[in-house]
Every structure is written in structure tokens, then in C-alpha cells.
């Protein structure tokens, strides 16, 4: 054991929290450096790549982004352990480049574009213990130093380590000593409801830490997945980066002029640096505006994550804060890519700009309650307005960022109730009352919805949502005339109550109605349900909101990944040969929910799963209970081995969907 190990004296909770804060900073910094390199990669043949090179670079980008996502999972695991010890997680970090002493001398962390040296640096950071991998050129420490001190200290001291795996071994050893001294309940005395779980975020580290075993399992998962993993561990970060290196070298041998990335700045900064060494000052006006917006979004993401850790489950603010934080990273990505393609300015003509990931001076949690909610609503609207000003015609990246930020601002305005006092869980929103339609001709089509006026109700049919379940043409054949020319819907040919029942049976929500006889319209289902159809879509029933927009009470959403009308099913699962059981095994939390209805938010994640937020019972095709959840990520790429739940396969198969 190194002489400067902080746990040589009696175990101290302060020392443990101090070490966990460094672990959080390290994981956070690694995530940012990996994202920065990925955002610098080229993305089309128009940017100087051949089709074969583009195929390779696209795969590298997916692999690096997956590693960055896993680093985010590691960060959540460290935060959860911090909370389990009774602490508040360290959300912020130091700005790039890090000053000496923040980390050991051998662990250099800085923002740099993807190239041979940067990739070798990533391999070095993730290397297993005992590896002979050298660091990348230009990444050696400016000076050698020792951080610790001999003998025990009351004041927390940093420790030295050669690999990240060794660092986590020391953390695990210290945690064991705390449990030996104070007992498991005394050491792990934090509030479990403050932690993030897989119900809040679709990340591998989102597992609640409730005992020594779960804490040590989290440390072990971090090491095994990448940092300090043994060379024979498949799919580790080390192996991923080594595989990219092998392919990169082969492509360079074929074409020595192959340049896979833009020359983004090394350690970009947003103002004239008082210490310019190792930094690039961004001066170009377009680059400044782009990086400024991206940094502001990143800072808000940190605040939202801090807030999520201050709000106990099951407060809806917690899940919404996480959703908005993840959404902000989606908005940041196109801005960061754009920055890497813009000039840095006249002082540094040799390189481009880049996202500087400026950390707030203090990213600690805002006090839960009305003030924080108003802050998030206001700030997201400010970012959305700035994105509109930044948007340039024909620029897909600024347009994408503007779309995402507008959506997030809308979600915040709808989801955060600034008038609800702190600590009171929000009651379900009341059912949305439909207003009678204005006078209209017997049949009309508007926005793809066919409207047919009957004596006692108006029938609405939205063809793009129809999955041809045939409940209509078999249950009311005189109303719905299949395969005819001209008018095909005749609502007055059956009793109005029977027709309402037929509409309720339509699983896709393609058929809806508005009563004209004073009777109530369709009401909110008493239980929110999601059925898994055999080799087919999800059938949702509830008070549905799709990306924050009311979507009726019924919908069938694609789970095969092949629909051309995502997120809705269009029947493509038949032609795609999709196979998936409609009878998945009973699994996640089957205890009865405290509330079984209420708003059900459906939010397709770009290139990823379907995020579901709200009270929900997932059932098989025959109605058998599969799971009861308040938040879940459901597979929509068709590849998960844990259907209906996402297992991350979308990232490895290159699933693409809005």
C-alpha cells in the first residue's frame, strides 16, 4: 500500500467523500475528452473521406460515443455511492486544462481532436495494470510531482495511482474499512431515494447502492468495463480503443494522407487567457456564438443533474430533471460538431474552434421547489431563443439544436409546476376535455385527419396511425366500408354507443370521435397499459403525451426498428421478419402502484429507446402482468435481448431514428 494512502488512520467519512469527489471529477473529465474527440470526426465524403474511410470513421464515432456514455454511467455510480455515504455528489469539475495536482502527475487530461496521439492517450488512460502502453505524444505531464504526504492526516489528501483501476481498488479498500468500523447501516447511512436508478436514466451505472456489496459491485463494474480492465475482458474501453487503433493504422498504410478529423483546438477557451500556454483562444464570431450556446446548455445540464440528486423519488421533478439533462446533451452534440468545423480565429489560424465544456463556478443543486422550477423554465427558454438566433438556413446542425432546445423548453414549461410548494408530489393532471368541433361539411381532411360529421358524433380517422387491426371493418361493417371508391365512413348506420365502443377498441388511436349529443367524449383510461403484441408493436392506453404533445388515449408504437413512420407502427414488422414474443416473462417491480393512471409521457430517444415516464403497467399480449413501472426505457431498435426493455443494443447495431 502506498505510504500516502488516506485510510491509514481510522476511516473518515470526510476522506471517503473527498476521494469520491476526485473519482467523479475524473470520470467527468474523461467523458468530456472522449466526446470532444468524437465531435471532431468528419461525417461525410464531402469533408474529404472516401466511402470506405467514412464507414470506418462512422463506426469509430459510435464506439467513442458509447464509451463516453458508459463514462456517464460510471459517474452516476460514483454519485450514488457518494449519496449512500450521506454526501451530496460532486457535479462540477475543474476547467480544462487541469492544473498540476488536481490529478496524479501521470494522469493528464485535456481536450484534443481525434488523431494518432489522442487515440494513444485514450488507450493509455484505459490501460490495464501492468500494461506497457505508452502515453500519446504531447500528453506527458509538464512536471513530475507527488500529491500525498507520509502519515495520517485529518485533512483530506489526494492519493497517487498509476491507473484508474488502482484508484478504485483504494476506494473499495477504504469503504470496507468504514463498514468494519461503523457497520453497514452506519457507514451507508444516506437517503436511498435521492440516488438515480434505471427508472430515471438509461445508463449502466444507474443502480441503487444500499449495502457494501452493491457499492463494491459498482466499483468492480467501472474497472471491468474499461478503466484498468484486464486485457482479456471483451468489449472493455481499452479493447475498443485498441481496435480503433488497429483499423486506423491499416487505413493510414493504405493512404498516408488520410485525415479522419478536423483540427479542432487543443484546450479551447472563450476569453483571452491570462496564461496562454497550452490553450487556444476562440475569436471567430460564429464560433463564439456556437460554443457559448453549447457551454450554456452544458452548464444547465449539470444544474439539472444536481437538482435530480436533491429531489427524492417519486417526485416527478426528479425524472423530468434527468430527462431534460439527457436531452440537453442531444442538443449540445450538433453544436459541438459545428464548432469543430469553424475557425478558431486569427491568433490560431492553424486550428479550428471546439466546445470548451466550461464548468460553472458552482454546479451544486438548487433548493428543490418553485424557485428551481422557475429557473429551469426560464433558462431553457433563453437557450431555445438563442438557438433560433444562431440558426442558419441550410445548416442541419444549428437547425437540429434549435429543434431540440425548443422541445426541451416546451417540456420544462409543461412539466415543472412553479406554483407547487416544495415537497408536495404533483397530482396527475386532469383529463383533457375535447372541445366540440366547429360546423363543417359532412367530410373533410385536415392535417392528415379525415373528419366525418354524423348526427350524434363526429368520427376522426388518422390514416398514418392505422395498423389495420380491422376492429372497425369487422365490428361495424356498415360504418367502415373497406375497399370502396369515394366516401367510406358512414357514422349514422349504427347506434352511437356501439360506434363509440368500436373507436375504443382501435389500438392505434387512428379512430377517435367527438360527441355532438351532449354525452361525454372518450375519457381517460382508469389504468395506463402498454401491451406487447406478438412480433409486433407496443399498444399503449392512457393519457398519452408524445414528446410533450397530447396524443390521445391510444397508440401503437414501433418496436421492430423498421417503421418508416416512427415512432408509430406502420406494419413494417411483417416485411422485416421481426420476431419478438408477445409473452415476455414477468420481471421488473410487480408491486401494485400507488396510482395507476395519470399522464403518460412517451419520448423516443434519438437513435435509442422509447423513454416512458408515468404510472404504467406493461402487460403481455394476453394481458398477463409483465412489470409495473413509473419510468422505463423500452427497446425500439428490435435488437434488445431483454425485450421489452432496452439493453443498449441500439448503440452497437447503429440504430438510427428520431
Automatic annotation (TrEMBL):
<dbReference type="Pfam" id="PF06902">
    <property type="entry name" value="Fer4_19"/>
</dbReference>
<dbReference type="GO" id="GO:0051537">
    <property type="term" value="F:2 iron, 2 sulfur cluster binding"/>
</dbReference>
<keyword id="KW-0001">2Fe-2S</keyword>
<dbReference type="Pfam" id="PF12902">
    <property type="entry name" value="Ferritin-like"/>
</dbReference>
<dbReference type="InterPro" id="IPR026820">
    <property type="entry name" value="VioB/RebD_dom"/>
</dbReference>
<dbReference type="Pfam" id="PF09360">
    <property type="entry name" value="zf-CDGSH"/>
</dbReference>
<dbReference type="InterPro" id="IPR042216">
    <property type="entry name" value="MitoNEET_CISD"/>
</dbReference>
<feature type="domain" description="Iron-binding zinc finger CDGSH type">
    <location>
        <begin position="535"/>
        <end position="579"/>
    </location>
</feature>
<keyword id="KW-0408">Iron</keyword>
<keyword id="KW-0411">Iron-sulfur</keyword>
<dbReference type="InterPro" id="IPR012347">
    <property type="entry name" value="Ferritin-like"/>
</dbReference>
<dbReference type="InterPro" id="IPR018967">
    <property type="entry name" value="FeS-contain_CDGSH-typ"/>
</dbReference>
<protein>
    <submittedName>
        <fullName>Uncharacterized Fe-S cluster protein YjdI</fullName>
    </submittedName>
</protein>
<feature type="domain" description="Iron-binding zinc finger CDGSH type">
    <location>
        <begin position="617"/>
        <end position="656"/>
    </location>
</feature>
<dbReference type="InterPro" id="IPR010693">
    <property type="entry name" value="Divergent_4Fe-4S_mono-cluster"/>
</dbReference>
<dbReference type="GO" id="GO:0046872">
    <property type="term" value="F:metal ion binding"/>
</dbReference>
<dbReference type="GO" id="GO:0005737">
    <property type="term" value="C:cytoplasm"/>
</dbReference>
<keyword id="KW-0479">Metal-binding</keyword>
<dbReference type="InterPro" id="IPR052950">
    <property type="entry name" value="CISD"/>
</dbReference>
Amino acid at each position: 500500500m502506498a505510504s500516502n494512502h488516506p485510510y491509514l488512520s481510522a476511516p473518515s467519512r470526510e476522506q471517503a467523500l473527498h476521494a469520491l469527489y476526485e473519482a467523479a471529477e475524473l470520470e467527468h473529465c474523461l467523458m468530456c475528452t472522449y466526446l470532444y474527440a468524437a465531435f471532431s470526426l468528419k461525417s461525410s465524403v464531402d469533408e474529404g473521406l472516401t466511402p470506405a474511410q467514412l464507414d470506418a470513421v462512422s463506426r469509430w464515432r459510435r464506439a467513442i460515443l458509447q464509451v463516453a456514455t458508459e463514462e456517464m454511467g460510471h459517474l452516476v455510480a460514483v454519485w450514488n455511492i457518494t449519496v449512500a455515504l450521506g454526501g451530496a455528489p460532486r457535479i462540477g469539475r475543474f476547467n480544462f486544462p487541469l492544473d498540476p495536482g488536481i490529478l496524479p502527475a501521470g494522469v493528464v487530461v485535456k481536450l484534443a481532436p481525434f488523431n494518432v496521439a489522442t487515440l494513444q492517450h485514450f488507450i493509455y488512460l484505459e490501460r490495464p495494470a501492468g500494461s506497457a502502453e505508452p502515453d500519446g505524444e504531447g500528453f506527458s505531464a509538464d512536471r513530475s510531482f507527488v500529491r500525498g504526504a507520509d502519515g495520517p492526516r485529518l485533512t483530506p489528501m489526494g492519493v497517487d495511482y498509476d491507473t484508474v483501476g488502482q484508484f478504485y481498488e483504494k476506494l473499495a479498500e477504504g469503504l470496507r474499512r468504514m463498514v468494519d468500523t461503523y457497520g453497514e447501516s452506519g457507514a451507508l447511512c444516506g437517503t436511498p431515494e435521492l440516488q438515480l436508478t434505471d427508472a430515471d436514466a438509461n445508463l449502466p451505472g444507474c443502480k441503487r447502492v444500499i449495502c457494501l456489496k452493491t457499492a463494491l459491485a459498482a466499483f468492480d463494474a467501472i474497472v471491468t468495463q474499461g478503466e484498468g480492465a484486464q486485457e482479456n475482458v471483451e468489449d472493455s474501453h481499452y479493447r475498443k480503443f485498441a481496435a480503433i487503433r488497429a483499423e486506423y493504422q491499416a487505413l493510414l498504410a493504405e493512404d498516408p494522407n488520410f485525415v479522419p478529423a478536423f483540427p479542432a483546438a487543443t484546450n479551447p477557451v472563450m476569453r483571452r487567457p491570462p496564461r496562454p500556454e497550452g490553450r487556444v483562444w476562440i475569436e471567430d464570431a460564429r464560433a463564439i456564438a456556437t460554443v457559448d450556446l453549447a457551454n450554456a446548455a452544458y452548464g444547465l445540464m449539470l444544474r439539472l443533474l444536481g437538482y435530480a440528486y436533491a429531489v427524492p423519488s417519486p417526485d416527478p421533478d426528479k425524472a423530468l430533471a434527468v430527462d431534460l439533462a439527457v436531452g440537453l446533451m442531444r442538443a449540445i452534440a450538433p453544436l459541438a460538431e459545428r464548432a469543430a468545423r469553424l475557425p478558431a480565429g486569427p491568433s490560431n489560424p492553424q486550428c479550428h474552434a471546439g466546445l470548451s465544456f466550461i464548468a460553472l463556478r458552482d454546479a451544486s443543486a438548487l433548493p428543490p421547489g418553485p424557485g428551481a422550477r422557475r429557473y429551469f423554465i426560464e433558462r431553457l427558454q433563453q437557450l431555445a431563443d438563442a438557438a433560433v438566433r444562431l440558426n442558419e438556413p441550410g445548416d442541419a446542425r444549428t437547425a437540429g439544436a434549435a429543434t431540440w432546445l425548443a422541445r426541451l423548453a416546451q417540456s420544462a414549461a409543461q412539466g415543472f409546476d412553479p406554483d407547487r410548494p416544495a415537497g408536495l408530489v404533483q397530482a396527475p393532471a386532469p383529463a383533457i376535455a375535447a372541445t366540440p368541433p366547429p360546423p363543417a361539411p359532412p367530410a373533410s381532411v385536415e392535417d392528415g385527419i379525415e373528419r366525418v360529421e354524423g348526427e350524434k358524433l363526429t368520427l376522426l380517422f388518422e390514416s398514418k396511425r392505422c395498423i389495420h387491426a380491422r376492429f372497425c371493418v369487422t365490428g361495424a361493417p356498415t360504418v367502415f366500408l373497406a375497399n370502396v371508391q369515394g366516401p367510406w365512413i358512414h357514422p349514422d348506420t349504427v347506434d352511437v354507443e356501439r360506434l363509440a365502443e368500436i373507436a375504443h377498441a382501435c389500438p392505434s388511436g387512428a379512430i377517435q370521435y367527438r360527441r355532438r349529443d351532449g354525452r361525454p367524449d372518450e375519457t381517460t383510461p382508469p389504468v395506463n397499459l402498454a401491451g406487447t403484441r406478438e412480433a409486433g408493436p407496443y399498444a399503449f392506453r392512457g393519457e398519452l403525451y408524445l414528446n410533450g404533445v397530447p396524443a390521445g388515449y391510444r397508440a401503437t408504437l414501433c418496436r421492430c426498428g423498421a417503421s418508416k413512420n416512427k415512432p408509430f407502427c406502420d406494419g413494417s414488422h411483417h416485411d422485416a421478419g421481426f420476431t419478438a414474443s408477445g409473452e415476455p416473462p414477468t420481471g421488473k417491480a410487480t408491486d401494485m402502484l400507488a396510482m395507476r393512471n395519470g399522464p403518460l409521457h412517451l419520448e423516443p430517444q434519438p437513435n435509442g429507446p422509447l423513454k416512458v415516464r408515468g404510472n404504467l403497467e406493461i402487460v403481455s399480449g394476453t394481458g398477463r402482468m409483465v412489470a409495473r413501472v413509473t419510468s422505463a426505457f423500452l427497446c425500439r431498435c428490435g435488437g434488445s435481448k431483454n425485450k421489452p426493455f432496452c439493453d443498449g443494443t441500439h448503440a452497437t447495431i447503429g440504430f438510427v431514428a428520431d
